[in-house]
Amino acid sequence: MTQSSPTPAEPLKIGTRGSPLALAQAHETRGRLGAAFGLPESAFQIVVIKVTGDAIQDRALKDIGGKGLFTREIEEALLEGSIDIAVHSMKDMPVDQPEGLVLDCYLPREDVRDAFVSLSAKGLTDLAPGSVLGSSSLRRRAQVALRRPDLQLVEFRGNVQTRMKKLGEGVAHATFLAMAGLNRLGMADVPRTAVEPEEMLPAVAQGAIGIERRASDDRVAAMLSAIHHRDTGLRLAAERSFLKTLDGSCQTPIAGLALLDGGLWLRGEILRPDGSAAIAGERRGAVTDGAAMGADLARELLAKAGPGFFG
Ligand SMILES: NCc1[nH]cc(CCC(=O)O)c1CC(=O)O
């Protein structure tokens, strides 16, 4: 069923990063809006925006510093009006939006799991002692160090294609990627084993796409409310509240996942960056109670950790 279109005079400008995954997410957003309002592709214009995190490829993300390495320039474009909506991987989104912007539209979530990717092994436990694991994610590095302190960790940046090339060249024996990214890119040929959340809890918001808009743009607000996926929003409310209370940045190893199983079930974990300790906990509550549950679980873990836990 199509809804009456707000008949945009000009194409709706969709802002995105230029990586193949970001473009796939922008295309999915265009497809869902087009289907909801009976609009052709020509009613949309995809605008690629260069972000700091993509421009700098030769340094570890934690050394570039600051929040929003993958989002800042896109939010600036939204505020100045050169785009109308911004499509984001929610995993890369800071917990607070700048004044004047709103993020309250989520697409149905993809697979939340990490994928263990290797040309020679099926999982962390099969890697020979001293093997090299490539990852730039503080969370994955800490989770790996906790489980396999013998492995050597190396930084691994770049898109999926670049990382597969590095594995082929022997730069590392294995890496982790999000299942969501592999699925969205249709990369069926990448040798992957899905890692269950019970083995390794994924990042907050992994697999979720969020669409940001100007707070003042009522026409766009109405369009986005037609494609918003409520269950994903309820889960992310819990996970992002957990992250916010932990003051999570990309400098802190944090994992979190909420599921709807009649109620809302939130699991969370914080780790020391070197993997020498981890503290985990969970909450169960009403589906609309995510924000309070997330904050409460974060406070419990922070109290257990004590000062200086992150080192
Ligand atoms: N920080 C990079 C990033 N941001 C979102 C995804 C994957 C897609 C998703 O989780 O929605 C990735 C790459 C990865 O972890 O493999």
Characterization of the model:
The mean pLDDT is 93. 41% of the residues are buried. The chain has ten helices and 13 strands. The N and C termini lie far apart (54 Å). With 311 residues, it is of the alpha/beta class. The strands form three sheets. The chain has a five-stranded mixed β-sheet with strand order 2-1-3-10-4, with helices on both faces. A five-stranded mixed β-sheet has the order 7-6-8-5-9, with helices on both faces. A three-stranded antiparallel β-sheet has the order 11-12-13. Helix content is 33%, strand content 23%. The protein has three domains: 12-108 and 208-228, Periplasmic binding protein-like II (D-Maltodextrin-Binding Protein, domain 2, 3-Layer(aba) Sandwich), CATH 3.40.190; 114-195, D-Maltodextrin-Binding Protein, domain 2; 242-304, Porphobilinogen deaminase, C-terminal domain (Double Stranded RNA Binding Domain, 2-Layer Sandwich). Strand 12 and strand 13 form a beta hairpin. It binds the ligand NCc1[nH]cc(CCC(=O)O)c1CC(=O)O. Ligand PBG is lined by residues 89, 91-92, 177-178, 180-181, 206-207. Pathway: Porphyrin-containing compound metabolism; protoporphyrin-IX biosynthesis; coproporphyrinogen-III from 5-aminolevulinate: step 2/4. Keywords: Porphyrin biosynthesis, Transferase. Tetrapolymerization of the monopyrrole PBG into the hydroxymethylbilane pre-uroporphyrinogen in several discrete steps. Belongs to the HMBS family.
The end-to-end span amounts to 54 Å
- The level of helicity is 25-40%
What is the general shape?
globular
Strand order of the largest sheet: 2-1-3-10-4
Oligomer: single chain
* CATH class value of the largest domain: Alpha Beta
Counting DSSP H or I runs of 4 or more residues, the number of helices is: 10
| Class computed from helices, strands and strand pairing | alpha/beta
Strand percentage lies at 15-25%
Overall strand count? 13
Mind telling me the C-alpha Rg? 20 Å
Please indicate the count of domains.
3
The profile of the biggest β sheet is:
5 strands, mixed
CATH superfamily of the largest domain: Periplasmic binding protein-like II
User: Which distinct ligands sit in these coordinates?
Assistant: ligand PBG
- The average pLDDT value, as a whole number, equals 93
Give the SSE string: EHEHHHEEEEHEHEHEEHHEEEH
CATH topology of the largest domain: D-Maltodextrin-Binding Protein, domain 2
Note poorly predicted spans.
none
